[in-house]
Amino acid sequence: MSSTANGKNGTWRNWGGNVSARPTREVTPASVDELAAAVRRAAEDGLRVKAVGAGHSFTSIAATDGMLIRPQLLTGIRNVDRENMTVTVEAGTPLKRLNVALAREGLSLTNMGDIMEQTVSGATSTGTHGTGRDSGSIAAQITGLELVTADGSVLTCSEKENPEVFAAARIGLGALGIVTAITFAVEPVFLLAAREEPMPFDRVLSDFEELWAENEHFEFYWFPHTGSTNTKRNNRSAGPEQPVPQLKSWFEDEFLSNGVFQVANWVGRAAPATIPAIAQISSKALSARTYTDIPYKVFTSPRRVRFVEMEYAVPRAAVVETLRELKAMVDRSGLRVSFPVEVRTAPADDIALSTASGRDSAYIAVHMFQGTPYQRYFTAAERIFTAHEGRPHWGKVHTRDAEYFSRVYPRFGEFTALRDRLDPDRLFQNDYLRRVLGA
Predict the structure, then answer these.
(1) Does residue 348 contact residue 359 with C-beta atoms inside 8 Å?
(2) Which of helix, strand or coil describes residue 329?
């Protein structure tokens, strides 16, 4: 799953296979001091610097022809502070390892996304999120950050220390420095009761406000070419623990959601005309189920079928209208879409470039199977999302630039001013940042 320098001449590729880069130099520092020294050396040698996580972004946010920093030796928990209920982890720690380590300590994050292959710094720097009525993205749970800035110094920030850096660097896009450690707020581990069930698309839309208001974590998947969705409601539970039995779990999560789904996508890629029929079958294959388990076992699921993704945050009040427009577009377009559309929510937060910055948000994610042409579908979807002042996920495919972002992010100028201060010579610049933040 992790992105390795695969192939000849140290070419780096991302997980989705749609971005590659050939860095001049690669380093794998074993300490913050080593990382800081490597940053200073790169600056002296005139090389731009990028850190890469697990390569789960579909944008070229981590691509560089300069020096690529790989964080796999900067992993593990530094400190568990039970008095303040925080945990400090090294930036290269995969979310999977963090979740398991926290569970061993009887602790948990409040909310998380559905993939846990990413590193904590990659996930937070791009604004990775799950779904929540009251709890926000992974970055919204950060209480402190340590980063190496362009001059090679180590800066720590929190609400009390360097608060203006903290306000922006929790979702920093790799533009302000290299994150080396993150402190998260945690809580005693709890149980979530999960309820998954099919529901007609029209009913989900007509009852959306209610479904959102009545559940701590509500999301759904709509299968294009059908009027069907699969809904997921996760709420805290007093127990008892009732995990999905292992065989059933393998059948539903591995065989249906990964194995059969992979084959269905291969068939659809070879013969696009079969996709609507496959979609009808897929939408009915997943039956209703309920189970109760610790958070990361409910929130996260394996994703072995490779895809390319675009996701936009729209104001929550606009989500139903946006989805109606998306369905109408797919129905009349002649497009053949074999991947479900995923819909989630997040409350407003106070992070400058968070997709939920200052507004209650709903996320709509469109996917295409790896290796199928996605431009036409994504372009048409993006036109709908941007008409609602949508904000694209920083790690997923989009065509927006700084001019657009300065309109949809009220605090955009605050972020770019901080970048001017912390990285005046643009050591951490790459083509992607030039496009989304301006030169």
Answers:
(1) yes
(2) helix
